[in-house]
């Protein structure tokens, strides 16, 4: 049964663990893909929930205020997995704006909710985020920088009924056996 308080607590714990492992700052982006249908126990794309979106947005917005990272919310495949970002995020990272407004049935409930909460929302198609949270197997990998490092919460495996996957990124290790990767 859908419990907004429980999903808020689950996500707050998971985000806290991710940020403890891979702290983000004002020069970095966290991409979020969410199936609110999966959160409430339905099949992806079938039962979007504005209430679940509101809870998830609140938790992520609070985390953003503390760490000052940028947020990007991925839409569903009906909008080619485009992303909702603040205009300042698009300008800071040189992202090309596209014209569309996400709605629950084309973009998804989470992206539609975020679009209406942001102060100056814009849509972009391509982003290279520094970390990501995937709630409900929405496939955010295309929006992460290389190299993505999977991260599992010690305590949270799902948000509501939706499977949780998180990742952060690191620079590529290049150079072979003679290369040095840490400063002495």
TrEMBL record:
Signal peptide: none annotated. Belongs to the UPF0340 family. NCBIfam families: TIGR01440 family protein (TIGR01440). This is UPF0340 protein BEP19_12580. It comes from Ammoniphilus oxalaticus.
